[in-house]
Description:
Layout: E1 28-29, H1 31-54, H2 57-76, E2 78-79, E3 94-98, E4 104-110, E5 121-123, H3 127-132, E6 140-143, E7 146-153
Parallel strand pairs: 1-2, 4-5
Antiparallel strand pairs: 3-4, 3-7, 6-7
Helix pairs in contact: 1-2
Amino acid sequence: MSVAFVKEPNEDQVEALPERDLGTDPNFVTERGLEKLDEEIAKAEASLEAARAAGDKIAVAMINRDLRYWRARRSTAQLTVASADTDVVQFGHRVQIRRPNGQVQSYRIVGIDEADPAQGLISYLSPLARQLVGKEEGETVRAGPTEAEIVSID
Length: 154
């Protein structure tokens, strides 16, 4: 009987995993973001070797998928360096905002894969980053349910 008619996979078959979404937006990265992509590729390559050595076919399939993602992100990365000679917020800048209650928060506008809001790194596609880009110190922007004043741009 042909394997095509058997419902149970044999030991060499691994179910195909869906590819990770690469998105359609430009892949802008900071220097740190570019380094992070290289680190992810190196980490995945090391994990792949370990999974192959262990004979873990499911892990190999998952790591191969992630490796394809990271390599594609690296090949489309557009290193973008913020101009130091500007007074307006750009990709790569760190911006401090003051909330109405006086709380000052600091955010750096970075690429998609580098974003980590808990660490103050926000994607350039985030609503807050979109509000900040192109603004100057002293201007007010929408920041969640309230407004905030830009107090510094680094």
